[in-house]
Amino acid sequence: MRTPDLDLVSGAPFWPLAAGLLGVYPPLRADEKCDVAVIGAGITGALVAHTLTEAGLDVVVVDRRDVAQGSTAASTALLSWELDTELADLSNMIGLDGAVRAYRRSLEAIVSIERLTTLMHDRCGFSRRPSLYLATRKRDVARLQREAELRATQGLPSEFWSARRLAASSCFRAPGAIRSEGGGEIDPYRFTHALLALARSRGARIFDRTEIVEERASRRGVKLVSQRGPVIRAERAVMALGYEIPRPLRRDLVALSSTYVLITEPMEPCAGWEDRCLVWDSARPYTYMRWSADGRVLIGGEDEPFRSPARRDRLLPRKVKRLVRRLGNLLPNLSPEPAFAWTGTFGETKDGLPFVGEWAGAPGRIFALGYGGNGITFGVIAAEIVRDLCLGRPSRDAALYRLDR
To answer: With a threshold of 0.90, does the pTM exceed it?
Structure first.
């Protein structure tokens, strides 16, 4: 594999470049009134808007960027129900029942995504995929064996593969691995636009390039003041801001990190990777890989603590070279040609779960913050909890993701 010529590498995420402009939305130029205002038109905001309009609520969506151009565009869209925090570790944090429920909710969320794509003329690149969780070191093997056994006892579709079985069944070499069913992949940019189109068909009004600079809560609801002057009056506002931390919340709720992603030119299918399973490893930070729908290999990782956008972006060429070397180690028989690379910032919580729900310090607002490596599946879960809150219905899962946990 050759080292990439950095003239071939772009700092722009691949998905918008590949898909082009899928929808055009105006900025907010006049006052609006609605049941629920959604701040953020990325994949979580789009899922919330779709779910709320499906429930019959009147919705307005705003975003300070163009639609789907924030963390959604930078998403690598591995639809994994396996959380960044292993089930055993999460059980130690929140108890076995809660941990198993969190894993099952993520598994159910992928089923919901598949069902959603059947409503669309465009399947948005959705495909079912198994996953391989590779042991990076020999000393990780016993832990992964216990993890696979725990999952199996709880009815989660995972099994441990020895190094011998892994070598006989795939092109990957590792001391061991957990093989899981039930994952998937999707084009996050197309999926977001398709969801917003569904919401708009039910009456949602969508405005991008509209920054909300002030939020005022009263007994009558929430008043959102835009930078240009027009206001939105809503009974509630949903904060679906990707990895940004909303103003009322503590900065220490999440740890911000930068991740780096490389995607190759299209390639022929790889012997031993015919099922195009999702691949990640037990290192922390971990490396993750998948195929795109048009036959490219996507590899990401090299995470490090976020300090500033300038520093994050400046490190991209160096990180690309490391990802190329890692790809060569994982797939030594291929000669992939790098096409694009990008970097993005994400947030991590202590337990690997998102923050969803209301908070006493921000009346009238509901937070749908899908921090962690499972942002899309967390968005599905958040949308359902937000709907129940807006309709005054109980949600059995709300306590798992509450902001004050």
So the answer is: yes
